[in-house]
Amino acid sequence: MPDSALGLVKTEFRGLTVERYDSVADLAALERRPVRLLLVEQEAAELEADLGLPALDAVAAHTLALSYRDEALAARFLERALMREDSARIGFLPVNLQLDCWLSTLRLLLLGHPSVPQSLFRRLHRPRPAADGGDTAEAALPLTRRERQVLELASLGKQNKLIAADLSLSEHTVKLHMHNIIRKMGATNRTEAVSRFLAARHACASA
């Protein structure tokens, strides 16, 4: 993080201890310290095997986020993150946001609410033909056919209004379906439900 950005963070979030480390290896100093947010710059992630995730496990950070410019790299980072049990704690911070949006996203990360830009989900989305017998990631989920349709469209980054139009439903009905999807999948929010859906699809594609 540039000195200017670091200074801005210290000014905006007074009382917050902010430290910068030049390499992932230097994070060993944080091994036994509680960390609210570990923000990894794209350049550091590129240097680590598996895009940095194994090397970062030693740090007990409540939230882990990738600060990125290259969306293709961020999508690969997300793909690996979705294969982890703790994927719900991993978020993303694009550096090309307007300043107020950048600070708002950073504030959410600090509060333990990681976000994933829908554009990254769309990069991962790869429609696949059903396997023999219909044994697909979607079929394995404990969802009704309509709920699977809603989740499929949500994974494309579509909001409820567009999903409702595509399926000829009311927006209220889509909200109810999404509520049921989140509950049935044991997720805490829409983003986590989509993450689990894409992780299941990736697992089937890799099998």
From TrEMBL:
<dbReference type="GO" id="GO:0006355">
    <property type="term" value="P:regulation of DNA-templated transcription"/>
</dbReference>
<dbReference type="GO" id="GO:0003677">
    <property type="term" value="F:DNA binding"/>
</dbReference>
<keyword id="KW-0805">Transcription regulation</keyword>
<dbReference type="InterPro" id="IPR000792">
    <property type="entry name" value="Tscrpt_reg_LuxR_C"/>
</dbReference>
<protein>
    <submittedName>
        <fullName>LuxR family transcriptional regulator</fullName>
    </submittedName>
</protein>
<dbReference type="Pfam" id="PF00196">
    <property type="entry name" value="GerE"/>
</dbReference>
<dbReference type="InterPro" id="IPR016032">
    <property type="entry name" value="Sig_transdc_resp-reg_C-effctor"/>
</dbReference>
<keyword id="KW-0804">Transcription</keyword>
<dbReference type="InterPro" id="IPR036388">
    <property type="entry name" value="WH-like_DNA-bd_sf"/>
</dbReference>
<feature type="domain" description="HTH luxR-type">
    <location>
        <begin position="136"/>
        <end position="201"/>
    </location>
</feature>
<keyword id="KW-0238">DNA-binding</keyword>
